[in-house]
Amino acid sequence: MLKTIRKIRREAFFLDIHLSKISKSYSDSNTHRSLFKDMDARFESGSFNVIIGRSGVGKSSLLNLISGIDLPDRGKILMDDSDLTAMGDSGRTVFRRKHIGFIYQFFNLIPVLTVRENVTLICELDGKPRKTYQDRADQLLETVGLYDRRNDYPDTLSGGEQQRVAIVRSLVIEPQIILADEPTGNLDLETGRLILEMIAQLTQKNGQTLVMVTHSPEAVNYADRVFRVENQTLVVQPSLYSKD
Amino acid sequence: MISSPMVKIWLRQVSRHFLQTVLLIFGIALGVAGVVAIDIAKTSVSKSFELSTTVLTSRSTHQITGSDFKIPQSIFTRLRTDLGIHSSAPVITTHVFVKELNDASLTMMGIDPFSETQFRQFSVLAQPGSGNKGLANLLDASSGILIAQKLADENGLKQGDFLTLTFGTRQVKTLISGTLDSKDTRTNISLEGLILTDIAMAQEILGFKESITRIDLILPDETTAGKVKDLLPDGVVLVKTDDQNQAIRRLSSSFETSLTAFSMLALFMGIFLIYNTISFSMAQRRKLNGTLRALGATRGDIFYSVMVEVTVYAAVGSVAGLALGILLGKAAVLAVCTTVSDMYFVLTVSKTHIAATTLIKGLAAGVASAVAASLLPALTAARTLPITLMQRSAAETSLKKHIPRLGMAGGFLIWAAILTLVNSNLGPTYDFGGVFLIFIGAALLSPLAIVVIIQIMGMTAKPWAGVLTRMALRNIVRSLSRTGVLIASLMVVTSVYIGIDVMTGSFRLSLIEWVDGHIGGDIHLSASDQLSPSLPQGLLEKVQSLPSVGAVSAYNTHRIFSRTSGEVHIFSYLADLSEKQWTWSAHGQGKIDSLLDQGWIVVSEIFARRNQIQQTQGASVVLETLEGSRSFKVAGIFRDFFMGGGRIIVNRDSMERFWGHNDITSIQLFLHPGQAVEPVMAQIRSFGPDPSSLKMISGAAIKQNILGVFDKTFVITSALQILTAIVAFTGILSSVMALLLERTRELGVIRACGAQRYQVGALLLLECGLAGLISGIMALPLGVCLAWVLIHVVNQRSFGWSYDMVLSPGIFVQAVSLAMVAALIAGIFPGVRAARTDIGKALHME
User: Fold this and answer.
1) How many helices (DSSP H) and strands (DSSP E) are in chain B?
2) Which of B749, B754, B757 sits opposite A126 (nearest CB)?
3) With contacts defined as CB-CB under 8 Å, which chain B residues touch A64?
4) What is d(CA B371, CA B658) in angstroms, rounded to the nearest whole number?
5) What is the DSSP code string of A52-101?
6) Do B749 and A104 touch (CB under 8 A)?
7) What ipTM was reported for this prediction?
8) Is A3 part of any domain?
9) Is the pTM of this model over 0.80?
């Protein structure tokens, strides 16, 4: 059912993510390590994509490239017509602020900001007027059941609650893309399942493109497409490929 | 004691955080350097005073001296002929300027070569072939002088060269007839400030005719001393050499006390800086220590590794600090000795004396502060459960729990210290102990104060503060275990700045007031020749008749000898228009003039302090007069910033009766409003046949000269203020770098969320600025307290000056700005680094 709704909404949204001939390697004084070589991939707008693979193959690095946090050595990262690799740091930052939401394994909430302030942090950094985002932030908090805790600090919340705040933070700017880096990796099975459900529901409701790095087998059940990072490239996992 | 994995971990930590390690060691070095530099200045001044007087006073047991430091030469003859005392040597000493040595001031000493052998051992060098007859070389050459070999070498002088000596208006060309040398290093050093000449030659240069300055004596017993006393005419006194040297020792101790104060301030700052750097380093290692404990490291492993590491840093930093301190100390010695020489004409020797105790004190300050700073964290790391160590929040939670207790302890310490300061009279060291207690108390109170100030700021800023401001404010409270130490250290440093600034500012204002009221006048007239200070008769009437002159104040001043104060200036006024500030008067200020007419005297504050004159009815003091020792009742004590032994005012009759002077030595002219000074000076010059015999100086120039001397006196305080700024800067830089490292991941998240680089940099700068502002605010009461101690304890005990504390808003704005600007500048580098955070790496940092 979810996948059907997502397919319908997909038509109305833009921002396909296209990775073209991406190569990326890291070097330090002693070692040189190639992560990706001439990698091609496409994440369709509004789709739920899961990336799996062994630890250390570069799953998180791939998210960093997609978000513009890091740049490839070669190749292009295209968001429809926008080439992220051609932008400067400031341009990529603005792009990220407007179009990309993040969810991390360790929640990464700012400890000195309240729940609501964490959620609205990006909007405030963007200099948006409060009235343009406050209602939406409260509404999302209500949706994830944390409106009553809006004035509490993160250290008073449980892991699951913190991740729910992180989800709301990633959604409040209404980004077209959500990048999630093992969002359930730090949670128990039951909470992890609830969080997955929540991410899937909220992103599909808004038709957002979701790229999730995970080790969770359960996440695969929600995915439109499953990719595996191997041999320095991204391959579609045939056995898990959902034809919808 | 410390296992190899721990050493490996430590070394890796050093290589990974090399800049921080360098900053840590530099922090320790700077703290030690401050302590060492000022201590070197202190011991060097003390030693220089000692050396400067060693050669001059020699082995004599007694000295004969007199009013205006001039006694008839015939007394020397009578000592030998009437009493048969051959252990006697006539001496003339005075300060002269040497043209060829850039007008350097040296002590000229006129001696009788034949009488000297029992008193001073001079080893004279002469060029081969010129015939070395020792001191008798002086007798052979006309206008012959001897100078130290080292002085000659340093200035490229040799036997046969000429030196032009200036004394007052006189200039005499003298011939170097040999050089002085000694196998004793100390004597050699003291010789450097000396020009030795034959007494007849000195008399000729100074125009002393049949007079000498003093006679040195070696007397076997008090009976002989009694006989000498009986021989002496009125106005000439026999004093023990030790008593005579007391005055110079007091002068030395004035500077020593003052420098001790600054040395202790430097020590406080050093200790706080070292504590700050080490405690930051320890806080950072908390999690690592927790992990190591969890993996099986024993409590001992952790404790010893921390202690060994800190001791190594402390040792390296302290040794570097000693080297830096010696360099800074040399500069400080030069500055202080130049000031003293200029002010007192006493110190002609400026050598850097590096005492072993100074180096030990510096090393101890460095190592002990560092070890003390690390002891508690090391013990905590060893005793605490590994899981607690690994949770950074546990440290903050623990501190927050203790805030009220710390505040109470701080309040108690401050209260106890204030009680000690107000009630004790134990000496400057104890007073500074009290100040140190106040500093520690304030440091303990600081977490509470920070929380309160942040809450007030938060409430005030709420309506307009953006997310970055809110984050900056809360980050300070969140990391209180770190920011608390940083802010407390910065508070101490800033309060030292305020204390010194308020002290010098208040002093300067009081000095200006004193110059305006006490010295006043538009033109000052005196004789150019210091040896004949009387102004020509009739000059007073002539200047009074000038149309531009509104009023005239005239007086005479002469130098007399006081057993307790040494050289004292005694004044009597024909007309006195000065406005004195009285610190005490016997029967009310209005009665002063009538008491003076009754033979009472008025004394300066310094004289009163030196003579322990109680501010009560019936206070009196004994002075040497032409009629012998005589007791004078004290009518009042006036505030005075004149240096030296102090000043006494008597009426004209007393001056004539007891000291034999009825002349006029100085005239102050008060011109009608709007009258220019120069034309009046020109008119006065036209009065006499020899205009150069009159010394004329405008009131403005006198004021400028006095303030110039003031500024020189406080050159060491300016140096200390610069040191405070460097200490503040280093402390913050080191701390902010440490904080930055801890928060890399958080900053990475903010950047990943869409914060621009400048926004992350701004956040760091905002935090630094806020820390600076808070420490500046907290430093205000502490700085005022320190200023009070400096003004009412240190300066009064050191120099005998009293003045009111003047608090101007400008000083506080300046001090708070200093703290903020230092913090902001120190935050630039970490801010830039924060802005350049590699987001990808930061997000995966633990």
Assistant:
1) 29, 22
2) B754
3) 839-840, 843
4) 65
5) E--TTSSHHHHHHHHHTSS--SEEEEEETTEEGGGS-HHHHHHHHHHHEE
6) yes
7) 0.73
8) no
9) no
